[in-house]
Specification:
alpha+beta, FAD/NAD(P)-binding domain, D-Amino Acid Oxidase, Chain A, domain 2, Helicase, Ruva Protein, domain 3, 10-stranded mixed sheet, 8-stranded mixed sheet, 18 strands, 34% helix, globular
C-alpha cells in the first residue's frame, strides 16, 4: 500500500469514500473485493478518530439487552464470530467477570436472565457459555475483588478483544489497496462538483498542499463524527440528527488479572477494567459533546468520574496510577428523549438522492466497531443497486492480510534465523500476524534495522521502514500511534519520538526543520493525554 496520487484525476471511480476509520476502510475493502473501482480519502490517518480511541472490544453488547435491542446484539454476536474467523491474529477471546454484591439484589436477580439471553442469541458460536462462581471461586480467579464489600460471587462470560484496533482498520485498508483500491491518508475532501448530482470531489494533499479533483459515480460519506461537516460542504441539510458523545479511557497500572464489568455507584452505568499489555485499560464515559472535533481530550471531570467509580472497587487507586488518557467521539443516530448512554448504537444509511434530491451521495451514520463489516456490506449493497451492478459480498469468508495466527514454534524458528529475541518476534506477530516475516526481511537485509527502537523495547527499527514503505506512515504520529503500539504505552512513545523521527526523516527526505516540527507535533498530541492533570 503506497500513497500515490498518479491516476487520481485521470480515472473515474465507481465509488469515492470519505473517511478512513474502521467503517470507511471496511467499505473500501468490500467494494474493492467486488470489483468496484474505489477511492478512499482520509483527512488525517487511518483509524485516527473514533477507531483508535475505543474500548478495544469486539462484543455483542451485553448492556444493550436491558434496552431490549435484541436485533443489535444478535447481529454483533454474529459479526464477532466472523471477525474471529477472518482476523484470528487480532481478535481473540477475553473472559469477563461481573461481581455479585449482596446489596445489589436487583442486579443479582436480573443478571442471570441477561446472560442467559446473551447465550441464546450467541447460540452456535464458538465461545463458551456463562459460568457462575461462588465467592471463594471468584477470589481464587480474581484476588483483587477481596476489597469489594458484600461480595457473594460472580458471573463469567466471554467476548473478544482487539488489542490493536488500529491494525484491524489498517489491514482493511491494506486489503482494499491489494484489490485495486486507491487509499490515501492525509488527504482532505475540501469541496464537491455538483451538476444536479455529486460527480467529483476536490481533495488536498495536506502534506504537500497539492490539490486534485477526483471524479466518481457515487460518493459515500463515512466521516463518523465529521459526517455533518462533509454534508455542509455539499450544502446538504446535515445527515439527520447526528448526536456526538465523548468517551474516555485511562491507561493505569495493572489492577486485575481478568477483564471486569463494574457498575459506577453514582449512576449505575457499566464500565470496564480490561487487561492490556500488562496494564489496565479502563472506560468508558458517555457524555454529549459539542466542541472542536479535532481537539478532544479527557477533562478533569471525566477522569474524576472514572476514578471515583474505581475507588469503590479499588480503594487504594489514585490519580497517580494513571499513565495517560484517550478521548474519542461516537456519532450516534439521535433517539428522542434518550440519554447519551441509552441512545442506540445501531447504524443508518442515508441515500441523499431519495431524501434530498442529491444524486450520487450516500452517508453512513452510527454503528458499533464490532459491526463494521456488516455495515460495510449493507453500504456497498446500496452502492451496487444504485450502479445497477450485481456483485456478491465476500468479506465474511475472506481472511484479512495478517491471518492466520502465528504458531509459537514458527516464532521461535524465525527468531533464531533473524538473530532476534523471541519476545521481539512475538511482538511483530502480535502486530502484523502472518505478515511479520516481511518486517523480518528488512532486519535480515540490514542488521542495523534489527536494533530496538529504544532500550528495552521489543519494537525494532525495521518496523519504521516497513511502515513507510508499505503502510503509508507519513508522520511520527502515524507510526507511534497507529502502526505500532509504542505511543499507547505508559511512556506514550516520548522515549522513542526522536529515534523514530530520525528514521522517518531519512526515509521521507525531511529537512531538519520538518523533523523537529514532527517531534514537536507528536509531543503536543501526547500532552493531550495528560491534560487532565492541569
Amino acid at each position: 500500500m503506497r500513497r500515490i496520487f498518479d491516476g487520481l484525476t485521470r480515472d473515474t471511480f465507481d465509488l469515492i469514500i470519505i473517511g478512513g476509520g474502521i467503517v470507511g476502510t471496511g467499505i473500501a475493502r468490500d467494494a474493492a473485493l467486488r470489483g468496484l473501482h474505489t477511492l478512499l480519502v482520509e483527512k488525517e490517518d487511518f483509524a485516527y478518530g473514533t477507531t483508535s480511541r475505543s474500548s478495544r472490544l469486539i462484543h455483542g453488547g451485553l448492556r444493550y439487552l436491558p434496552m431490549l435491542n435484541f436485533k443489535l446484539v444478535r447481529e454483533d454476536l454474529r459479526e464477532r464470530e466472523i471477525l474471529m474467523t477472518i482476523a484470528p491474529h487480532l481478535v481473540r477471546e477475553l473472559r469477563f467477570i461481573i461481581p455479585l454484591v449482596r446489596s445489589a439484589l436487583f442486579n443479582r436477580l436480573t443478571l442471570p436472565v441477561g446472560l442467559f439471553l446473551y447465550d441464546i442469541l450467541a447460540r452456535g458460536r464458538s465461545l463458551p457459555s456463562r459460568q457462575h462462581l461462588s465467592r471463594h471461586e471468584t477470589l481464587a480467579k480474581e484476588p483483587c475483588m477481596s476489597d469489594i464489600d458484600g461480595l457473594v460471587g460472580s458471573y463469567v462470560y466471554s467476548d473478544c478483544q482487539t488489542v490493536f484496533m488500529e491494525r484491524l482498520c489498517l489491514e482493511n485498508a491494506i486489503d482494499a489497496a491489494g484489490h485495486g483500491a486507491l487509499v490515501l491518508n492525509h488527504t482532505l475532501a475540501t469541496g464537491f462538483r455538483q451538476d444536479g448530482d455529486v460527480s467529483a470531489v476536490q481533495v488536498t494533499d495536506t502534506l504537500s498542499g497539492d490539490e486534485y479533483q477526483a471524479h466518481g459515480r457515487i460518493v459515500l460519506n463515512a466521516g463518523g463524527p465529521w459526517a455533518d461537516l462533509v454534508c455542509d460542504r455539499l450544502n446538504v441539510d446535515g445527515t439527520g440528527s447526528l448526536r456526538k458523545t465523548k468517551g474516555i479511557h485511562l491507561l493505569t497500572r495493572k489492577l486485575s488479572e481478568n477483564a471486569l464489568v463494574l457498575s459506577a455507584r453514582s449512576d449505575s452505568r457499566l464500565f470496564f477494567v480490561i487487561p492490556w499489555q500488562g496494564y489496565s485499560w479502563i472506560g468508558t464515559t458517555d457524555t454529549d459533546f459539542d466542541g472542536d472535533l479535532d481537539s478532544v481530550f479527557a477533562e478533569a471531570a471525566d477522569v474524576d468520574y472514572l476514578t471515583s467509580a474505581l475507588r469503590d472497587y479499588f480503594p487504594d487507586f489514585k490519580k497517580d496510577d494513571i499513565f495517560h488518557t484517550t478521548a474519542g467521539l461516537r456519532a450516534l443516530v439521535t433517539t428522542e428523549g434518550k440519554s447519551a448512554s441509552e441512545t442506540s448504537r445501531a447504524h443508518k444509511l442515508v441515500d441523499h438522492e431519495t431524501r434530498d434530491g442529491m444524486k450520487g451521495l450516500v452517508s453512513v451514520l452510527g454503528g458499533k466497531i464490532t459491526a463494521y463489516r456488516h455495515i460495510a456490506e449493507e453500504a456497498v449493497n446500496l452502492v451496487c443497486r444504485k450502479l445497477h451492478l450485481q456483485a456478491p459480498c465476500s468479506t465474511a469468508d475472506t481472511p484479512l492480510p495478517g491471518a492466520p495466527s502465528v504458531q509459537t514454534r514458527t516464532l521461535q524458528e524465525a527468531a533464531g534465523a533473524a538473530g532476534l529475541s523471541v519476545e521481539a518476534v512475538a511482538n511483530l506477530a502480535c502486530l502484523y500476524g502472518s505478515r511479520f516475516s516481511s518486517v523480518l526481511e528488512y532486519a535480515r537485509s540490514d542488521g542495523r534495522l534489527a536494533q530496538p527502537i529504544f532500550p528495552g523495547s521489543p519494537d525494532i527499527l525495521a518496523q519504521v521502514k516497513h511502515a513507510v514503505d508499505n503502510e503509508e506512515a507519513m508522520t511520527v504520529s502515524d507510526f507511534l500511534l497507529r502502526r505500532s503500539a509504542i505511543g499507547l504505552g505508559p511512556s506514550q512513545g516520548l522515549d522513542a519520538v526522536e529515534t523514530v523521527a530520525g528514521e522517518m526523516a531519512s526515509l521521507l527526505g525531511w529537512s531538519s526543520t520538518e523533523k523537529q516540527n514532527q517531534i514537536d507535533s507528536y509531543r503536543a498530541v501526547a500532552a493531550l493525554g495528560r491534560r487532565f492533570t492541569k
